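Structure in, sequence out. Go:
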């Protein structure tokens, strides 16, 4: 049995339809080798995946939906992302791979003899640096 092909631009199904044609959930599932219930679950987990629905709840996937499903499949099954990590990757967030920032000076230690203020200031500076790194 041949493994499904998942090129970067989306699958190239050999179903006789035009590349811009809408596809049913069964056609997409068969092309990508994914079960239909998995596609329905991904619709719940990835807000940007919204196929058109017609009377009776029948789903029709646009070419951009199929490309998104292909990317989700790649992230989850080829790259090993979790659902949450894949959502972040699709949003373009770098939060999944934040580098550890070096400490400019050793962390102060709070004890009974000294105030906790230096430790609090130090922790706030780390929090600010991490927030700035996540925004990049």
């Amino acid at each position: 049995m041949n493994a499904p092909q998942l090129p970067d631009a989306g699958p190239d199904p050999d179903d006789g339809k035009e590349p811009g044609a809408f596809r049913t959930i069964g056609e997409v599932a068969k092309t990508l080798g994914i079960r239909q219930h998995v596609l329905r679950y991904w619709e719940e987990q990835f807000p940007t995946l919204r196929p058109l629905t017609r009377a009776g709840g029948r789903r029709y996937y646009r070419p951009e939906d199929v490309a998104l499903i292909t990317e989700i499949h790649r992230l989850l099954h080829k790259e090993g992302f979790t659902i949450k990590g894949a959502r972040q990757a699709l949003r373009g967030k770098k939060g999944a791979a934040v580098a550890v920032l070096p400490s400019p000076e050793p962390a102060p230690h709070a004890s009974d003899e000294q105030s906790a203020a230096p430790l609090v200031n130090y922790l706030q500076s780390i929090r600010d640096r991490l927030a700035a790194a996540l925004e990049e």
